[in-house]
Every structure is written in C-alpha cells, then in structure tokens.
Amino acid sequence: MAPEQGARKRKAITRDSPESDEVVLSDGGEDFEVPLPNGNQSEDELNEDEGDSSDLFEDESDIEDDEELEDELDSDEIPSDDEENAKNLERGEQSTHSRDIKGELNGGPATNYKITEDANGNVRFLYNEIDPVYDSDDSDAPATTNTIGNIPLSFYDSYPHIGYDINGRKISRPAQGEALDALLDSIEIPKGWTGLTDPATGKPLELSQQELEVLKRIQMNEVPEENYDPYPATIEYFTSKTEQMPLSAAPEPKRRFIPSKHEAKRVMKIVRAIREGRILPYKPPSEEEEDDPDVKRYDIWANEAPKPDHPMNIPAPKLPPPGYEESYHPPPEYLPDKNEKKAWEEADEEDRDRESLPTNHDSLRKVPGYNKFIKEKFERCLDLYLAPRVRRSKLNIDPESLLPKLPSPEELRPFPTSCYTIFRGHEARVRSLAIDPSGSFVASGGDDGMVRIWQLFTGHQIWSVKLSKEEAVNAVRWRPGTDAVILAAATGEDVYLIAPPMSENDIDPELHVKSRELVDAGWGYAANGASGKAKKEPATQWVRPGSSLQDKGVLVKFSLRKTVKVIAWHRRGEYFSTVSPQGQSSAVAIHTLSKHLTQLPFRKLKGLAQSAQFHPSKPIFFVATQRMIRSYDLSRQELIKIIQPGARWISSFDVHPGGDNLIVGSYDKRLLWHDLELSVRPYKTLRYHQKAIRAVKFHPGGLPLFADASDDGSLQIFHGKVVSDMMENASIVPLKVLKGHQIKKELGVLDVDWHPTEPWCVSAGADGTCRLWA
Amino acid sequence: MSDQTLSNSAGDTGDSASTSQVRIQLSTRHPDIALPENPGPILVNTNLRRYALSTLVNALLQSEKPIPFEFLINGTFLRTTLDQYLTANGISAEITLNVEYVRAIIPPVYLASFQHDEWVSSVDVLSKTSPAAIWAGNAGTKVPGQERILSGCYDGLLRVWNMSSEVIATSPSADEGGAHSAILAAKFISPTQIASSGLDRTVRTWEYSEDADGFSASITPKLELHGHKMAVNSLAVHHPSSRILSTSQDHSIRFWSTKKSEAPPTPENLLPSTSFKSSKRQKTGSSPTTATRGSLSELKSHTGQVSDTIFAPNDHTVAYSSSWDHTVKTWDLPSSRCIDTRSTSAALFSLTALPSLNLLAAGSVARHITLIDPRASATTVSAMTLRGHSNAVVSLAVDPQNSYGLVSGSHDGTCRVWDVRSGTSGNEGKVGHSLYCIERESAKGRGKIAAGEGVKVFSVCWDSDVGIVSGSEDKRMQINRGKGIVGEQPS
C-alpha cells in the first residue's frame, strides 16, 4: 500500500496533483529533506519504490523496457548523477528485494515454532532453528547483476539492453544524460515550492525568498542571520604609529634587571645533574670502528708452513737479515771513512740516514755493551707514561732568501767608487762646494773666507778670491746654464755674485763678457725701481764691492740681516734664493738677478728655516724648517703641501730632477726618501750613518744616483731609480760608502755635489780638503 | 855554457824519467828573429823557465849576443815553469804547446828626475827616432846622447832639457811675451819648432834654435793661434803638412796651420786686446807683439770636453779624437766632418794609435785602457781592455820598437807598460794586465798614496833612445829605461 502510495505521490509531484494529502503530510514530518537530492533515507525509500514499481510491471515484455525505464524516470523527480553501475546496483537490489518479499509471501503461513509444555505446565514456544538461506538478503554479496561475464560491453552496442541479470531478464541500457536534461528542462517548478502543506493554513507551503536564503545559509553551515560578517576588519586598540614619546613614563621595573631566581634554580638543577653524571653534555664519539660483519678477513699467513714457490702463494714479508754493515767485524769497504763519520756525527739524529755506523771490532768479545740501553729504556718509560716530548722543528730556510731582492751593485754601474783627486788648499774647513754647469771646474768655499776654483781632475787651483777676513764662506753655488759663468757665494750676511775668470791672467772674452753683462744688467733697473716706487723700503741694497774684489771678478754684493747659510738657484738662472736660519722674517729671500731685486716672500715662518730649493720644472718653492718641508706655489702664492719627514732636525734636502721625489737628510742620522705623489710621510728611511747627515744631493744629469755626506767622515752613494710607471715604486739600493775625509772636531763631510752628466761627485770636508770621487 | 847543457837536455828525448817532458812548437811574428829552419816540435823538460827557454832559442838562432826573449803561451807570458803553467791551466803535457817568443821588454829602471818649479803637464822628446826628427828628414840632427826633452809646466813655461838634466832653453815668461798661464800640452813639430797650448785657450808655436855647442838654445814665439773658448787640453802635430790639431774643454777640436801665410787671420773678438780690461790684461797687453792667427776649421760634434786627439798614423787627413762624452770619433779633416763615432762605457781621457794592429788605445776615467778598432768594419767597440791602474788614465804612448807595446800614465802616480798580446779572455772580453809598473821616484817610501795625491802623472812619452819620460804633479820629469833593450848601448 505504502509503496504504491509513494509512486503515486511521485507522480502526483510531477504532475502537480495534490492527492492523498494526509499521507504526504504524515510522511512530511519524517521526510522534510525532500529538496536534498541524495539523502540516504529517501534513497532507500525510493529504491523500495522502484522495486515495487518493477514488481508491478513484472509482466511487461522486454521490448517495453524502455518505456518502463521512462516511467521510472518519470517518477523520479531527482536528476540522478549515478552512472550505469549505480543503476545496475539498484536493479540488483530491486530484484533481491522482490524475491525476499516473495519468500515471505510463500512461507508466511508455516509456523517456525512448536508449542510445548514446560516443567510448570505453562505454554512454551520452541522456535525452530533459523535457517539462514543463502538467498536471504545479504548486503555483503557482490552487487553484480549483469551475468554476461567478462566480455566487453561493446558487444551489446547494437542492442537496447546491456546484458542479463541473474534471473535471465534483460538489463536495459540506462537513460542517456541528454534525455534526463531534456526532461528536467520541461519541468517548471515555482520558486519556493516545497511540496508540503502548511499545517496552520492547510495550503501548500511556499517558502518566501528570505526563508529560502536562510535555509541556504544553514545548508552552507553559515550563520543564518543576514549580513553577518564573520571576518570583520580589526579595530586596533592601539595605534600602529610609533610614538615619539612613550605613552608611559614609568621606569623599567626592577625585576627586569635582577636575575631570575626561578631560572637560576632550574639552571642549578641541570648543572647538578651534569655534575652527578645524570646528564651527559655530549656524547663521546665512539672511537673504535665497528667491525663490519659483512667483510670477512682472512689471515693468509696464519699457517706459515713452507709451500712450493708459486705466483699464487706470496710468502709473508720479513725483515731483511742483518747485513755486513751490522756486523761487529764488517769488511773494510763497509767501514765509513773520516768524512762520512764526521758528517754522520754532525748530522742531527732525525736527519741521519742510518741509525748506527759500522764499527770494526776484532772479535765478538770486544764488542762493547749497548751504550744506548739506558736511554732507550728511559724513553720507553716516557712512552708508557704518555709523556709528551718536545719535537724540535728545524727551520731549513736560508736566511739570505728572506731578504728582499736587491740588484747587486755591480749591475748598477757606473757610480763613484774611489777617490780620484784631492783638492788641497783651503786652510780651514771647506763648507760648501759645487761643480760648474759645464762640468770642468769645482768651486769651493771655506772657513778661511776664500772661494777657490779648481780644475776637476788635476786638482789644479785655477782661481781664488778672499771674500772675508773673519767670516766663513758658507755657500757657493754656480748659476745653472752654460751660457754664462756666474758664481754666487755667501759669507756671513753678505752674498756675492762673481764672474770668475777661468784662468789667472787670461779671460775668455765671450763667456766672461756675457757673464758680466748678465750680472750688471740689474743696475739700471735697481736705480729706476728705487726712484719709481720709493714707498717700500727694499729688503736690501745691491752694491758694488771694493775695487780689489771687482778686479777679481766679484761684481755685486748685497747684505742680508743674518748669516746666509744656503744658496739655491732656480734652473733658469734668473732667480736664486738664500736662507739665513736666524733671520726671523728675512730667513728666506728670493733674489732676481736681472733686476737686482731682493724679495722676502715669508713674513713669518714657523720654525727655523734650514734650506730652500726650487722645483726643477714647476713654479714651486720648497722651504725646509727644522721638522717640515713646505712647498709653495710661486705663481698663486699659496701653500701646497707640508711634507713631514719625521726627522727631528732637517739638515738639507734635494728635489729629484723629475720633480716628484725628495731626499731629506737630517741631523739625527737619517736619510729619508719622499715620494711626493704618494704621501707626506717618507717612502723609505735609510739609517746607515753613525753621525749626522750634512748634505744630500741627487744626480742632476739623469743618472739614478744620489749621495749623502755625513759627519762620520763618509759619503754614501745610493742607486735611486724613479720610474714613470705609477704602479712601480722607486728602487733604492745602497751602492758604496766612500771613506777618505778625516773627522775634525766632530765634523766630517760638509757638502757634496754631483757632476752634471758623469757619475762623479765631489765632497767638501772639515779637514780642509775637497775630494773628487769617480 | 848553461846554454849548451840546457839545449842538450832539451834535445834529449826523455832519458830522464823523473821529470816529465812536453812538446813545444816555437814561433814568432818578427821575421828578424825567426828561426832559420823550422825545427818542428821540440821535446823539453817541463821544469824549464823563461830564461832556459830564452837560451834555447838563442842557441837555435846561433846569435852571437844573447837576446832576451819572452814566451807567450795562449796569450799569456810564461812567468813560472812550464810544469806549473800546465797544471795551473789544466793542460795535458802530451799535447804540443804553441809557444810564441818575442823580444823581452826589459823592466824599465829609473834613470833620472828633472826638477821643475811647478807641475809638469806635458813632455816630449826630440831624438833621432822621434817623429819630429823623422819628419824633418832625419838629417842626423841628434846623435845619441844629444837628445832633447821638452817639458811644459803649470807655471806657463816651456823648458828644453838635455840628457844631463840641464835646462838649455826656457820660453819667455809672461812679462816677456810668452803668455801661457799654464801649459797643458807641448810638442816638437820639428827639430826647430815647438807647439804648445794651455789654460789660456791659445795654441802657440815657437821657434827653437840651438847654439852650436848644444848647451844653450832659445825659444822665441812665432805664432799665437786663437779660437778656443776654453782651455786647450792637448795637441797633435803633423809637420809635413804643417798642421796642428788641438782639443779643448769647450767641446771642440780646432785644426790649425803652422804657416803664417796659410792661416786665416784671428777673428777680432777673440783677440785679448778687445776683451775686457783688467789690470792683469794691461800687463800682458804690453808684451811684444806676436803674430796671431785663427783656425782653419773647427770640428764640433763632441758633447763633452775633448781630451785627446791624434792624426791617423798613415793618413794625415784623418784624425781621431777622444772625449769625456765617452766617444772616440773619426774625422775627415779636409771636410771637417765626423765620419764615425765609437761609444764606450766611460769618459775617455787619452788616446793613441797602434798602427800595426789598426787599433786605438783610449785611456778612460774608469781606470782602464780600451783598445778600439776604429775601422768601420769592426763589429765590436772594445777589442781588449787593459786593467791595472787605480785612477784615470790620462796619457798614452806606444812602444817605438814593439808595435804591441804601450805605456800609460795615470793619475794614480804610476806608468804602466803593457803588451797587448798578453791577455786573458774573461766574461768581459779580453783583459790584459800590465807587464811593469813604473812608480814615481818621489813617491818611494811614502807607501800607498790615496788618489795619487801629489804624484799624478800628467804626460808620458816613450822614445827608443831616451826611454819612458813622464811628467807629473810631483814637479818632476822622470826618465825610466830598460837597460839593454835597445840594440845600441847607451853611452
């Protein structure tokens, strides 16, 4: 009754017929989930319905199967997703179900119990054993209903069915998807239709749009309330912006600074455990290698029985038997000779190639006891104690190889090596000397107030003049350039310009006239200048010396305020500078030869001026004070650089003809090489003299040489090559110490000068001699 | 006597088993002492020394008077026994030694010193065999013993000495018209002509006339040659063409004529009278007038002082010059052009020619003498280096009798005698060492003198009759001669 009702109900649904309302209503309480397509309960019901329906159409012919199917489908308002198998399954279930029902129907009247009497005489029902027929409903049984066996389904492509079930009925081909879709499209269901009756009104229950949405939300496991936002935007309690000032000015609590007692307790607990050995801080690595049981080892020499000689039979290696060398009485050819013995004894124990030397004893009786016995025993003891012994590690480094590679002086020839000429004549110290630009003469000035000119190699004195009776001649310098022969000499505060005749009673007219003209050219200018701008008092007045001096060729004289110690010419011969260390503001003076003009460029100089030099190619002027050398740009009149040699008292310096390097000699025995491009600090410090360095000089004519003169009576010649490559540093090699000057009153060599082109130098000594070295 | 025994022992073919013997092949480059017939290899004892070999050669030559010989083996003179030589050089005694024998240069012994007032800068000799005499036709001007020695001195005076160390002539002093401030070079042009030059930039020629008795003579100024701008270092003279070459510190060489008519007049600006006036000048201005002349040409291409010059020995139109700029230049005089330049390693101070070897010897500041092949075909600049001096070599003279001989004067105060055949080949090329070293008599007993101070030799001259004459800073002219070298005995 009920299945039929269900089927009808379904039909009613499809056809929208409101029949048997009560039933529907009664079912509606249970089956509220009608819209759910796959609810289990409903499915079961449906299946049952189907089964019933199939039962109903049991007698219909096979051909009508399609219709039956259509009917079925008609009755099914749910679009089924199931595939063919699902259909088959359903079918199988239907069939079994139907059989069950049949069985029940057949066996219904037969009783399965006997009525007996029990001990009390009461009725007792004795039930039969339930016979679990194999056919009974067995949900576990496989649902295979198609009995066609293991053949491809394609064999049935041409038939409307796809096989046969266990009862030999055709299994019809399930409906295709398109048919279902078409059917569903034809059905129009009003929105909100439930198929239920509202019990309050008795009218069909229709859900409003709002209610449908609530349902949908419940279905989706959402909060049914409308517009509920499960993820609202965070409202921050604090602003995310960093405040400049803390909101709270409360000081950090003390507990943050004191160590936690609780933690200390916990740490102590761990420490105690470590101490007691309950916790091992680390696991010691297992030292012994595990024997790999898979690798099998054999001792092939375990049994040393003699075997015949065969390549497969390798005898165990043995120590060689002692030879003749170990014999107590070796043959004489094994005995070491004297040299071998000595070499062996001198070698260190580790280096010896053999442990003992063969020694000859006439008989075994004379072999002495083993003299190393005690020592070896002792060492064995040390080994047992695991006493470490210091191993002497030998350094086999040739100390020579650690020295930097310098080219040997032999490769750097030519340079002066010996004294060639001694110029004797000065009665006291020779303070200064210079070789003339043509390289033929030497001019020297000394404490006797004389200026002398010598022939370079013969040492013949060509000319001399006495400039001063009391004062020493402190500086003599030739004017550069071969167009004229002019000598500047300084005695005391006076500076003289001399055009010396090159021989006693004859004068080279051309050269000499030229020289005189050059020196005298300034007279007119000086006169004009003085009258023109008389506002500024000139630093000094250039005057003619006495007539006796004029006859000797001394043409101009002027005086500075303090003793002039150094004269340096500009390379063009137009300017020269003088340095008088004691004269405060007039310490450094620059003189213009053609104008007879003296200028004092420095109003105030820090420190005592020691020396001054012109740059060989640029308008730069170097002034050395006791500790610093300052370079000034003459054209812009500003300080360029302060060079700090680090010497305590600079005695002299010289600029390399290239202009980028400087050597500085100091009274504290140091010779310092400066690379002006590199640093204001010295590139190299040479400390080879025992006493103060008095003078330093670069070779002016392109040879990579420089020399210094020291109070220890020696000159030192160095090779100092400057390369134009910026990446390479200057190479400085000491070449030669030239000794010969005697030390007089702690003074040795006072000045040095180079020949303009050749590797020859001259030196002025405190012993009253000048020397030529070549 | 000893000759005989030695030659016997030499001729013996090894009956003395104790001493080993070596085969030697004697040869010489001098035809006058060549062996009459080639004796072939001679077997001699290895314990022979030079003297024994010399007697052997004399015996073979059958000369009446024994000639001392030196023996050259592989370029070195034999100074030890043959045995020691062989062991020192690692030569087997079984090979035949090629032994060259040459006339020995007898060690020159000191003969005399002539005292001067000042440093002696230059010396020259007039003898029968001196170039000046040969040019003059060798007209028997000087008999042996009548040689004249010319010296130039730093006091500006020329002196002519006879062999008895007497001054027979002195040039007039500065007051009297002889005007050198210091003489740097002086030479006989001919037996009657002298050329000199000095610090005063001039070259002067002088008439030299001797009295008949030979005990007095006079030097009178003849020509004053102006042109150099600085001191004139050295002179070379060639009488047949009456030409003088002079070198100066002003880097130039000037070419002059000794004939008044040939020489151009002096450029006006060079005359002393036009130069600057000074008190000194007025003194010399009052001197008796001497004819002045200018130079024929100026040879300019040196870049340093020109230290020395010579005429080519066989061609007076070619000259060689040495300079401080390290070069030796060859000049073609008629065109005044520099033909060839040979560069050496150091400044050169002196020059002389070894004609038979086509070599120039140049003394350098680097204490050695370089032998230079001036011919254009020569590939190497330095054929040989003679080492031994300890200061600059400033003067050179060739041995008049031995074309391989040379004497050099140096600032170290010694003269050294060299034979260019003797030398060893090292890695610096062939290096020769001196045979003898002549020291200054004035330096005897002074020990080693640093830098040759006070004894610098400035000039050296070698004459076959007189010997080696050297002038020095010790104000003396010293004569050394190897006794018995020459054929004629000195009187």
TrEMBL record, chain A:
Pfam families: BOP1NT (PF08145), WD40 (PF00400). Residues 85-103, 335-345 have a biased composition (Basic and acidic residues). GO terms for cellular component: nucleoplasm; PeBoW complex; preribosome, large subunit precursor. The keyword Oxidoreductase does not apply. Gene3D superfamilies: YVTN repeat-like/Quinoprotein amine dehydrogenase. InterPro entries: BOP1/Erb1, BOP1_N_dom, WD40/YVTN_repeat-like_dom_sf, WD40_repeat_dom_sf, WD40_rpt. GO terms for biological process: maturation of 5.8S rRNA from tricistronic rRNA transcript (SSU-rRNA, 5.8S rRNA, LSU-rRNA); maturation of LSU-rRNA from tricistronic rRNA transcript (SSU-rRNA, 5.8S rRNA, LSU-rRNA). Keywords: Nucleus, Repeat, Ribosome biogenesis, rRNA processing, WD repeat. One of its GO terms (molecular function) is ribonucleoprotein complex binding. Its main location: nucleus. Residues 156-416 form the BOP1 N-terminal domain. Residues 317-334 have a biased composition (Pro residues). SUPFAM superfamilies: WD40 repeat-like (SSF50978). It is found in: Nucleus, Nucleolus; Nucleus, Nucleoplasm. WD repeats lie at residues 423-464, 749-774. Residues 1-113, 304-362 are annotated as: Disordered. Component of the NOP7 complex, composed of ERB1, NOP7 and YTM1. Within the NOP7 complex ERB1 appears to interact directly with NOP7 and YTM1. The NOP7 complex also associates with the 66S pre-ribosome. Belongs to the WD repeat BOP1/ERB1 family. Component of the NOP7 complex, which is required for maturation of the 25S and 5.8S ribosomal RNAs and formation of the 60S ribosome. This is Ribosome biogenesis protein ERB1. It comes from Cladonia borealis. The gene is ERB1.
Automatic annotation (TrEMBL), chain B:
Keywords: Nucleus, Repeat, Ribosome biogenesis, rRNA processing, WD repeat. Residues 1-22, 258-300 are annotated as: Disordered. Residues 284-295 have a biased composition (Polar residues). The keyword Protein transport does not apply. Residues 22-86 form the NLE domain. CDD domains: WD40. Transmembrane segments: none annotated. HAMAP family: WDR12. Component of the NOP7 complex, composed of ERB1, NOP7 and YTM1. Within the NOP7 complex ERB1 appears to interact directly with NOP7 and YTM1. The NOP7 complex also associates with the 66S pre-ribosome. The keyword Ribosomal protein does not apply. GO terms for molecular function: ribonucleoprotein complex binding. Pfam families: NLE, WD40. SMART domains: WD40. WD repeats lie at residues 225-266, 299-341, 386-428. Gene3D superfamilies: YVTN repeat-like/Quinoprotein amine dehydrogenase. It is found in: Nucleus, Nucleolus; Nucleus, Nucleoplasm. It comes from the Eukaryota. This is Ribosome biogenesis protein YTM1. InterPro entries: NLE, WD40/YVTN_repeat-like_dom_sf, WD40_PAC1, WD40_repeat_CS, WD40_repeat_dom_sf, WD40_rpt, WDR12/Ytm1.
